[in-house]
Specification:
With 164 residues, the protein is an alpha/beta fold. It is 31% helix and 22% strand. Helix 3 links the parallel strand 3 and strand 4. The two termini are 27 Å apart.
């Protein structure tokens, strides 16, 4: 598993561009060309539900599966040296990846605001799978992530985890 830890602060602070939107009109299977299928970390169980589905897409498209964690670092700390470890690098998470035989490249992006950093890590437009729970009265973290990705012009598949 490859690991990339990158500071997103310079990129996140300069994103004042208009969002790119997916093409309108009829959808043709040739419209979507992607160099990878991405999964955005939301919670462990929800992310594994998304990884299982995204793995099938990645296999069918013959592209790599990439897991992204936008790790927010609070302001008192330097964005380049957060405390602790990302959940996707924990021993339990890695054991579960091995047990389920999921081949994934993981990337952790350090940032101040995960929603604002979304556009800097993904090519436009990308196929992104987000795991979340059942719909609730107020939008959940996963639903807010889905909306931010769609607003940025990405194709998003939302996977509901029945355990959430």
């Amino acid at each position: 598993m490859d690991v990339f830890m990158t500071s997103m602060t310079p990129l996140a602070s300069t994103t004042r561009q208009q969002p790119a939107l997916p093409p309108t009109g009829t959808f043709d299977s040739h419209d979507l060309r992607t160099n990878a299928v991405y999964v955005v970390y939301t919670s462990t169980d929800q992310t594994f539900a998304a990884l299982r589905m995204a793995g099938e897409f990645a296999s069918a498209l013959n592209v790599p599966l990439i897991l992204i964690h936008y790790r927010t670092v609070p302001y008192p700390l330097s964005v380049d040296s957060p405390t602790g470890v990302s959940p996707i690098h924990s021993e339990d998470f890695l054991k579960r990846l091995r047990a389920e035989q999921i081949d994934v490249v993981s990337r952790v992006y350090l940032c101040r605001d995960g929603r604002r950093a979304i556009g800097a890590a993904l090519h436009m437009p990308s196929l992104v799978v987000v795991g979340g729970g059942r719909r609730r009265w107020w939008p959940t973290k996963a639903e807010r992530c889905r909306r931010a990705l769609e607003t940025a012009g990405h194709y998003v598949i939302f996977v509901e985890d029945s355990h959430a």
